[in-house]
Design a protein that fits this description.
The complex is a heterodimer. By secondary structure, chain A is mainly beta. Helix content of chain A is 4%, strand content 27%. Chain A is globular. Helix content of chain B is 9%, strand content 29%. In chain B, the strands form 2 sheets. In chain B, strands 1, 2, 3, 4, 7, 8, 9, 10 and 11 form a 9-stranded mixed beta sheet that branches. In chain B, strands 5-6 form a two-stranded antiparallel sheet. In chain B, strand 5 and strand 6 form a beta hairpin. Classes of the chains: A mainly beta, B mainly beta. Chains A and B meet through strand 2, helix 1, strand 4, strand 10 and helix 2 of A and helix 1, strand 5, strand 7 and strand 12 of B.
Chain lengths: 245, 206
């Protein structure tokens, strides 16, 4: 195995860019947010390393939500979409061979989860989860249906914008990230208390997938582009304290 | 033209929401879709070391168990080596060091089987006491919470641990120490996580 270039800590996470733990308007956060400040750690091996996944862990078809739960010859109801993009780090370098997992409601806003009691219907041909590994250029793609908006008990008339949950690993446990993808032009985005936990409008823009006509398959599937950025790492220019020497 | 720093910004976090199981533990959501779910085996049968069980509950600011949490564990093997190409040394076949568990929908209890990790070399040549890194996501948690589980029966190593010693408030350090007991002759470590209020668990910005 070749030795990777010596790299140091991850860049500090910008906690003013991410949502704060406590956001009154997202009610569940009120009792689930720590009151003490986080204790800042300098990275050690525990944070720099993280799990690796390979092609033995998943099936090549796990990224196709149009077929991974459908009966043979059947297809889910809804707008057929491709969601694709790249996973990069803050240095704009691709993150290859990393696990990307997604989950979502069906086209009517209903989740296949025993706790979801929303009265819109389940789709017998739609499960709602997928996973894939990025390729050597950090690229990933999924095929799915566009999820519907759905109501939730926060304020009495709150509706989530259409969204896909996204989970990404990177190479170190410190890069672990879960987020949500929204769709360009959705009027519910600006009204959502969960979206609005993010203080900076530019940060919200990073979560809005763009319609990508160039990646659309004519007469078949429309496409959205969603790039994901994970924390970058310092080059160890003058010191190498991580290794302990 | 001014000089520019052309770094990208990290994608902002959002809560995992109430239905995180669909994506990351579909069996628990009530359906079978993947040939294998990930994260159910941290240390395969070939892993050396003491076999332990780790369990607990996550409680919110009202003291109520949180029943929709997903936890991930990341740990070194019994020799203190992480299953990662940048960490010097090799791990046993079948030792992954990573696991994923959910809390029970009725009781909020979570637990996993693993091996007790060994001490890991920390910064500046200092040894870190044996620990398991934990990452917690759930509805109401906007950014995943990082914490560390240390072991009660490693008193000497814990006292010298450089990370525990970063915590200025000594009485808060005990929130990271899992208590040891035996059940059916097998060691069980109890690690309850308090998100807020009395006895709030220490969370780290890593």
């Amino acid at each position: 195995m070749s030795t990777p270039p010596k790299q140091g800590e991850f860049y500090q996470r910008d906690r003013r860019w991410h949502p704060p733990a406590l956001s009154q308007d997202y009610k569940t956060s009120v009792t689930r947010s720590p009151q003490f400040p986080l204790i800042s750690l300098e990275n050690t091996a525990s944070e720099i390393t993280g799990p690796a996944f390979g092609h033995n862990d998943i099936n090549a078809t796990d990224n196709d939500l149009l077929s991974n739960f459908a009966q043979p010859g059947e297809s889910p109801i809804g707008e057929r979409i491709i969601v694709h993009g790249r996973v990069l780090d803050e240095n704009a370098r691709p993150v290859p061979n990393t696990l990307v997992e997604i989950w979502q409601a069906n086209a009517s806003g209903r989740y296949r989860h025993k706790k979801d009691t929303y009265l819109s219907a389940l789709d017998p041909n739609f499960g709602g989860c997928g996973r894939t590994l990025t390729d050597e250029n950090g690229c990933y793609h999924f095929r799915t249906v566009k999820p519907g908006a759905y109501p939730w008990r926060n304020w009495v008339n709150d509706w989530r914008p259409a969204h896909i949950h996204v989970s990404v690993f990177g190479t170190g446990f410190a890069q672990r990230l879960i987020t949500q993808l929204y769709f360009e032009g959705d009027p519910l985005i600006a009204r959502c208390p969960i979206v609005n936990t993010i203080p900076d409008p530019e940060a919200v823009e990073m979560l809005i997938a763009r319609l990508d006509m160039n990646a659309t398959i004519p007469l078949d599937t429309i496409a959205y582009r969603f790039d994901i950025v994970l924390r970058g790492r310092r080059s160890t220019l003058f010191e190498n304290r991580l290794e302990g020497n | 033209m001014p000089q520019r720093l052309d770094y990208l910004k990290e994608t902002p976090s959002q809560t995992a929401g109430p239905y995180v199981h669909i994506g990351l533990a579909p069996g628990a959501a009530g359906f079978q879709i993947y040939d294998q779910e990930l994260g159910w085996e941290i240390a395969g049968p070939g892993a050396k070391g003491e076999r332990i069980r780790v369990e607990g509950v996550v409680v919110d600011g009202t003291g109520s168990p949180v029943k929709d949490v997903l936890l991930e564990a990341w740990q070194a093997n019994a020799e203190g080596i992480y299953a990662h190409p940048e960490h010097p040394g090799d791990v046993e076949e079948g030792f992954r060091g990573w696991g994923r568990v959910i809390t029970d929908f009725e009781t909020g209890e979570w637990g996993f089987e693993t091996v007790k990790p060994g001490p890991v070399l920390g910064r500046g040549g200092q040894m870190m006491a044996p620990h398991i890194n934990l990452w917690i996501v759930a509805r109401g948690i906007n950014v995943g919470l990082n914490t560390r589980l240390y072991f009660e029966d490693e008193g000497e190593a814990n006292a010298a641990d450089p990370v525990l010693n970063v915590i200025e408030w000594e009485r808060r350090r005990s929130t990271l120490i899992a208590g040891r007991s035996e059940r059916g002759g097998k060691p069980v470590y109890r690690f309850d996580i308090r998100l807020q209020g009395e006895g709030e668990t220490v969370f780290f910005d890593i």
